[in-house]
Prior knowledge:
Elements: E1 3-7, H1 18-24, E2 29-32, H2 43-56, E3 61-66, H3 68-79, E4 84-90, H4 99-109, H5 112-123, H6 125-134, H7 136-148, E5 162-167, H8 174-183, E6 188-192, H9 199-202, H10 204-212
Parallel strand pairs: 1-2, 1-3, 3-4, 4-5, 5-6
Amino acid sequence: METVVLVPALATTARLFTPQVDALSATREVVVADLHGSGPFTLDAAARRVTDAIDAATGPVRLGGISLGATVAALACLARPGRVRHLVLSGGVAHPPPALAIQRALSAVLPLGVLARLAAAQQGPDGAADLRAVGKGTYLAGLRELARVDLRPRLREITLPTLVVCGDRDKVNIPLSRELAAGIPGAELRIIPGAGHLWNLEQPAAFTALLLE
């Protein structure tokens, strides 16, 4: 049986992929990797949790990530060449965008309650609950880790069928998605009409269908 491994965004939990888990579990094994775990957040540790999920799969693996989860999924794919059959990267980046510096500065000074309200505006009440559960320290650590990543020299090592997607309302990440797709040999780029950053919640059926293409 095929295993679908999904990697959520920073400061979210498996709850983020509830629509996809509900839709796919009847026909596939679905695993949502824990992006945060215990201890200080690092991208290397997050990628190891994804490779653990890949290693545990008994059949072919379809790997998908969204936001920071897309960057982690790319790292895991590089660490397990040949184990992933298909890769879907949504709203991911190969290196930090200029706007990240502003996001880090604002996030450092805003109280957790304000950050939680911003998460709720994007994801609903569960987004606020996830952020509070993960904690501001881990959230800031994730932004700090993202600020130092640069996958561009290694993107050419990803040779499996790859689909890079980005919502057309996710303006900051569109050029970064284009760059990501251009760096992966044979990757397809698709801009999703009417979609924002975490568009798997906005258009769950369309996101699920795209995972299975």
